[in-house]
Write a structure and sequence with these properties.
10% strand; alpha/beta; ten-stranded mixed beta sheet
């Protein structure tokens, strides 16, 4: 037997805002006591917030691309399947869950209702699958028993008898949730049917859990309830305050339902805690939250898994037990951290292939952590299935429940269509999960395939929007523009707000804040409650250096959604830019409290503390950023600067060594075709006070008589690059054909100068006309072809280099000192100089 027991309670969709309100009102006394006796906080969910994927991540410490559960349904391997698909099964999980790991370690586990867990796995202990409580049979007498629901088989009869059928839910049982249940039943409202079914399921899971706690030995136990999620999807729209679109009679019927659901979970928790001893560690966790206030969506999109738009991005987490801090708040965790945390409680090694981390901040004394490469490589009896199938009747029951909840569309008689839809949705969810995990390049071919293969399908727009956002995040602007035009051509009236939003995002990514703002304002008229929309308008003002207007919109976004870390980060950046350092720190601390591993917040706090003269604390903030993102040059440069000023030579040398060996530095590059206006850009930057690197301003050779702002060593880049260390922190000109030779161990900001091709060719022709190397007509044709090919090759090269940030700058706009273009350039460089006021020499590359 293990020295300690861990009881993991899963409350699907438990929302902190509801919990905090009810605890404050004294309506959840058991949970209130639990929180005081332990540690608790928000956990970030994963995208997409789809329960079977999330609960598998919670139990394995791995994302969907590794664990194999890709949504609600999957293709059915049985060729005789009625519709070609089935609910996701435990046999589809490709990696070990906690109970499989413990099986190999000689420990005993009891698992109740986990999603997905059917068919029940033959573990050392008891497993009751998520099909245990489900039925569509009209009476208890007709209630079929699904084979594979319980392991071991010796417990089948016991488990059959403790189930609760919906017909056994009486009036007094319904009254705490719907005080006017008699009137609601008479109205024949479908909501009452959902409530009755959910209550029966809740009673059944509670009965199974308490029976096993009282009668079976265990080292680890996990119990999952879907009831808060089901109550919320059915009745959260009626939760106070009343929404304008909700009828008075329905609000009157169901306004107490959510409160009743949470209070009932508090009562079940009280019973469960009475069945364990003080040496047991108890964890309560949800997979995501549920919008319970003004952020509740007024209507849901008509798409698969549409109800997930009601989910909020932060999950509930609370833990108490021996060695756990009391009345302690934790910050910055994720639902994927649960498995590593449970392993640390048992002093078991954590798999290096797990994407989560142990929440060590819960401990009074931090444990000594150990690691192995992977639990998948550990041999022995893990209790996993070896490919057994599911019972067809069970599949039908579970599928119908998913249809009733709105998570999937009802399968059609076209098996090929059903299978294709399941595969596409699964791949779409995995692609989103990869993007959420920072694996954007891996998601790219998946989304491109989906968009290409669903050109005529209604889901194409949805897939296309996601691909468009990915293109923009990767700097693939040409592909983004092409896709945007295709989406606009196939869109309809209902899709116009989405198309306008993505078109605005395209303009924002391409440094056209004026056009972006115009479109965002049109969208916000249709979605006035969108924090993200106000944030985007704020970004457009920020790009134009109008910080006062940007601040207004960021504050509006935060007021709508205080948990929106991107809005708070944007607001903090404005405070930093305007010298309001304490206010900026407050905002970034709020960001960290929600998402601890958000690097810009730690960097921002460090910058503010430095400006406030608190350099030792500034160094601590940057040290945290360095741990999270060890290869970020900006963090290391700040640490070198701060430790130099603090005369802490050893620490300065340490970070300088890392910079020198791994990151080298950051260089601003100015490039474009010859005669495109690069020298004008260099002169602009130099007169604005930006550090520039060059060694020549004299007349050059016959091909370039105006070798202005040239740095001669750049001509040797194909053979050596040691000289680049002298360019660190400077702007330097580089010919386009040398971009391919840039080493990857620097960070680059590239100003790519764009000029009308005819003007470039005309300028080149004027320079070379005296050379008479070829006839006038041949020169024009060959040069034009070479110019077009060079621009195309450069664009293709840059799309594959995410470490090169690109800003496209119009030569004509720069020459005419157009305000928007100059503001955009200053924003890209992170400077606040006023380029429009500069006086330039008359010499340019005309």
């Amino acid at each position: 037997m293990s020295k300690r027991k861990v009881l993991l309670l899963g409350w699907d969709a438990c929302e902190w805002k509801v919990v905090n309100d009810l605890v404050a009102k004294g309506m959840m006394p058991t949970l209130a006591k639990f929180l005081k006796e332990g540690s608790s906080g928000k956990l970030a969910t994963l995208d997409p917030p789809i329960s079977p994927m999330l609960w598998t991540s919670i139990a394995t410490g791995k994302r969907a691309d590794k664990h194999g559960i890709h949504g609600f349904v999957e293709p059915d391997p049985d060729p005789n399947s009625a519709n070609g698909i089935r609910p996701v099964a435990s046999t589809s999980r490709k990696v070990k869950a906690l109970w499989n790991i413990f099986n190999q370690e000689g420990m005993k586990s009891n698992v109740v209702g986990w999603w997905p867990s059917h068919p029940a796995e033959p573990i050392n202990g008891v497993m009751v699958s998520q099909f245990f409580q489900q039925t569509r049979d009209k009476t208890r007498e007709d209630w079929k028993w699904i084979p594979g629901t319980v392991h071991p088989l010796s417990l089948e009869e016991t488990m059959k008898n403790i189930r609760v059928h919906p017909t056994e839910v009486t009036g007094p049982m319904m009254q705490p949730f719907v005080p006017k249940f008699k009137e609601a039943i008479k109205s024949k409202d479908k909501v009452m049917g959902a409530i009755v079914t959910t209550l029966a399921h809740t009673f059944s899971i509670h009965n199974a859990a308490t029976y096993l706690l009282e009668n079976e030995d265990w080292d680890f136990m996990a119990v999952y309830w879907d009831s808060i999620d089901h109550f919320s999807h059915a009745t959260m729209k009626y939760h106070p305050p009343k929404l304008p679109t909700i009828p008075e009679d329905k609000f009157d019927f169901y306004k107490e339902a959510i409160t009743g659901a949470y209070r009932f979970h508090d009562m079940m928790l009280d019973r469960i805690l009475s069945l364990i001893d003080d040496d047991t560690t108890v964890i309560i966790v949800s997979d995501h939250g549920f919008h319970s206030d003004h952020l509740r969506p007024r209507q849901l999109p008509k798409e698969p898994a549409g109800p997930t738009y009601e989910h909020s991005p932060y999950a509930f987490f609370a833990i108490k037990g021996p060695g756990i801090k009391k009345n302690h708040a934790i910050f910055g965790g994720s639902v994927i951290d649960i498995t590593p945390t449970v392993l640390s409680l048992y002093e078991k090694p954590i798999g290096r292939d797990m994407e989560g981390k142990p929440l060590v901040q819960i401990y009074e004394k931090a444990p000594a952590l150990s690691y192995i490469d992977s639990w998948e490589e550990v041999e022995g009896n893990d209790g996993m299935h070896k490919g057994e199938g599911q019972d067809p009747w069970a599949q039908q029951e579970a599928m119908q429940q998913l249809v009733d909840l709105g998570y999937i569309e009802a399968p059609t008689g076209d098996k090929a269509h059903n299978i294709r839809q399941a595969v596409n949705e699964g791949e779409y969810y995995v692609a989103r999960n990869l993007i959420d995990g920072g694996k954007r390049r891996e998601a790219l071919p998946m989304l491109e395939r989906l968009v290409e293969e669903t050109k005529e399908a209604k889901d194409n727009l949805r897939y296309g929007y996601r691909l468009l956002g990915l293109y923009l995040s990767l700097g693939m602007n040409k592909e983004a523009f092409t896709l945007l035009e295709k989406l606009k051509a196939q869109g309809n009236e209902d899709s116009q707000p989405f198309l306008m939003y993505h078109e605005a995002s395209f303009h924002l990514a391409n440094k056209n804040p004026v056009k972006a703002e115009e479109l965002f304002r049109k969208v916000i008229e249709l979605t006035p409650n969108s924090a993200n929309m106000y944030r985007k308008i704020g970004v457009a003002y920020q790009m134009r250096q109008n910080f006062s207007e940007a601040e207004k919109y960021f504050q509006k976004a935060v007021s709508i959604d205080p948990d929106n870390i991107f809005a708070r980060n944007s607001l903090a950046s404005v405070y930093l830019k305007t010298g309001r350092y304490e206010e900026a720190i407050d905002e970034w601390m709020q960001v960290i409290s929600n998402t601890y591993y958000y690097i810009p917040a730690h960097q921002g706090i460090g910058t503010c503390l430095y400006h406030l003269g608190i350099k030792d604390k500034a160094a601590e903030a940057f040290e945290v950023a360095a741990v999270i993102g060890p290869k970020l040059a900006r963090t290391r440069r700040w640490l070198v600067k701060i430790y130099s000023e603090l005369n802490m030579e050893a620490k300065r040398a340490h970070h300088e060594k890392i910079l020198r060996e791994n990151i080298k530095g950051q260089i601003t590059l100015v490039s474009g075709p010859a005669r495109s206006g690069m020298s004008l850009v260099m002169e602009t930057l130099e007169k604005a006070g930006y550090p520039v690197k060059y060694d020549s301003m004299d007349a050059g050779d016959k091909d370039n008589p105006y070798r202005r702002f040239e740095y001669t060593p750049m001509q040797k880049l194909a053979n050596e690059n040691a000289f680049l260390k002298d360019c660190d922190g400077h702007a330097v000109k580089i010919p386009m054909h040398f971009l391919n030779y840039l080493p990857d161990n620097y960070e680059y900001k590239l100003i790519l100068v764009e000029r009308n091709s005819a003007d470039i060719l005309k300028s080149r022709q004027q320079l070379k006309s005296e050379g008479k190397l070829r006839s006038q007509n041949a020169f024009d044709l060959v040069d034009a072809m070479e110019l077009g090919e060079q621009i195309k090759e450069t664009e293709e090269f840059l799309e594959q280099r995410p470490h090169i940030q690109v800003h496209k700058l119009s030569y004509e706009a720069l020459l005419n000192r157009e305000e928007a273009e100059l503001e955009s350039l200053a924003y890209f460089l992170g400077e606040d100089f006023d380029l429009a006021q500069l006086e330039l020499s008359s010499q340019n590359e005309a």
